[in-house]
Amino acid sequence: MTEKAKKNAQNGAKKSSREAALEILLEVAGHPEGQKPLQTLIDSAARASFMEPRDRALLTELACGVMRRHVLLDVFLSRRLTRPEGLSPKIRMLLRQGLYELLFLDGIPARATVHETAAIAIRACGKGMGGLVNAVLRRLSEDSAAIAEEIAVRGRRPDGESAGPRDIAESASIPLWLASKWIGDYGPAGASALASNASVPPSPSWRVNMARSGAEELREEWTAKGFRPVGRCGFSAHLLDPARAGAASERDALAALEAEGRISRQGVSSQILAEDIVSWLDAHAEGRPVRVWDACCGRGGKSCALLEKGVEVVLSSDPSKHRLDDFRREAGRLGLRLPEIRCAAAQDVRGSFPYVLLDAPCSGTGTIGRNPELRFRLSEEGIGNAVRLQKELLDAVWPAVERGGALFYSTCAAGRDENELQAEGFLRRHPDAEASVIRMYEPMFPGEDAMFLAVFVRR
Fold first, then answer.
1. Bigger pLDDT: 294 or 5?
2. Can you give the pTM of this predicted structure?
3. What is the pLDDT of residues 41-98, one digit of tens each?
4. Under 8 Å between Cβ of 272 and 232
5. Beta strands 433-441; 312-318: pairing state
6. Pairwise CA distance, residues 280 & 278, whole Å
7. Which of 68, 245, 302, 381 could join 240 in a cystine, given CB atoms 3.0 to 4.6 angstroms apart?
8. In angstroms, rounded to a whole number, what is the distance separating the alpha carbons of residues 5 and 409?
9. For range 115-143, the mean pLDDT
10. Rounded distance between C-alpha atoms, residue 180 and residue 187, angstroms
11. Residue 449 and residue 413: Cα distance in Å, rounded?
């Protein structure tokens, strides 16, 4: 540890991984609206406590793991507590965290988990609460093998026609209303598949910058090392031996390639969707200029993916200046020519374009595996607001599509109201539109995003 780290530790600035994870969990659960991204909270906590890589890894695993499993953890905790609702939010979250560690982190002795978790309870709430945490976790530790077997059975059970809303809600730690919604949208088997997918984090994946020389050779080099190919331009660490995937030499090599702008971290579904848009343009442009307006470009992920593949993105707009600043930095890293950048809501942009990409704001329910904090932030009201905004955006950008051109509408939502039903409503309102593509992208690998794409051609 550096001298600065030692000094801060002596002054009480340094927190353990468990204490930092608890603070993050309480912050996300207590303030679901307007919260910073989870990774930002983890990064800030790790920097503030000068964490070594091993401690940072434990912090990340505890914070993300408890979010992914909190409803399931509550099921087992409720069997050992007379009145769990009578406990403070801090003690309830600490018990969840301790139980998660007992059940899912094999490398830590149970006695260490119980001792350290009880010590945090004593410092935070006094000896009485520390004794309760100690007693509950000790009993759970003794039953951990039976609990682990029950979890394994639960993981297999929500299947086919037998799965009910509570099964699915508990297995994926999602709200009961969302489990019911998924069953209504996709049936028990489809909802079970989404729940299973949401219960694990995705393996990292990368998109190769095809605008750079040697791009195809670079992709072949990494797939030859055992990384799984993704579409025509990417690769994923899915099914790679975790010990090897975490090797310092490969991590350093990938980090260097990212710094050089030769690869970008991007989810599998997003890569495939962008490639499908390019393929559609190649097949249907028929000599028309391929000029695209990215109407909700955010940090420029899809604009950059299209630019790398030779698509002429002429305008990228977004109402957030901070996101556009990130886009500029990302395009600079990748060595791409920036399109015109406009800080504006899509409803306020005037112009005419052969093609418009509307990667619409959505609930993000298709990304719960990647973003476990969404479990605390989702609401039925929020999804309703997203549906209304999507409808407004679709109607606002459609006049900008030239005759014979097309509108690409995409979301990262898992729900028919933001996807298929939104597309059906758009077609009813606009008789000059016809659907060329309506596609739901089911996750290719566990934990990957579910996404949706509709292509509307203007007659």
1. 294
2. 0.91
3. 999 999 999 999 899 999 999 999 999 999 999 999 999 888 888 899 999 999 999 9
4. no
5. unpaired
6. 5
7. 245
8. 49
9. 94
10. 9
11. 9
Query: Angle at CA 377, nearest 5°, toward 441 and 268?
Result: 25
The residue-averaged pLDDT of 341-364 equals: 97
> Is residue 423's pLDDT more than 60?
yes
The pLDDT of residue 154 is 66
Residue 180's pLDDT is 96
- CA dist 409 → 83, 271, 293 (Å): 48, 15, 12
User: Bridge-partner residues for 264, per DSSP?
Assistant: 207
What's the pLDDT score for residue 361? Answer: 97
> How sure is the predictor about 34, in pLDDT bands with cuts at 50, 70 and 90?
low
Per the listing, tokens 């809600």 go with 169
Question: Is 70 exceeded by the pLDDT of residue 454?
Answer: yes
Place of tokens 């996709």: 186
β-pairing, 312-318 vs 291-294, is parallel
Under 8 Å between Cβ of 195 and 179: yes
On whether the CB atoms of residues 174 and 376 are closer than 8 A, the answer is no
Helix axis angle, 53-78 to 17-30, nearest 10°: 60
The predicted structure's pLDDT at residue 150: 85
Closest CA to 419 of 383, 380, 379, 376: 383
Do residues 288 and 312 make contact, with C-beta atoms less than 8 angstroms apart? no
DSSP-assigned letter for residue 225: T
Helix (H) / strand (E) element for 406: namely strand 401-411
Residue 65 DSSP code: H
- 229 contact partners, CB below 8 Å, separation of at least 6: 219, 223, 235, 236
Residues 434, 440: Cα–Cα separation, whole Å = 18
Residues sharing a CB contact under 8 Å with residue 354, sequence separation 6 or more, in sequence order: 285, 288, 289, 290, 291, 292, 401, 402, 404, 405, 406
Sign of CA dihedral 75, 80, 82, 84: negative
Q: 343 φ, ψ to 5°? A: -85, 95
Element (H, E) at 317: strand 312-318
| 149 exposure class (CB count in 10 Å sphere: 0-12, 13-18, 19+) | exposed
Strand partners, 318: 343
How is residue 137 written in tokens? 């976790």
Region of 322 on the Ramachandran plot (φ > 0 left; ψ -120 to 50 alpha; else beta): alpha
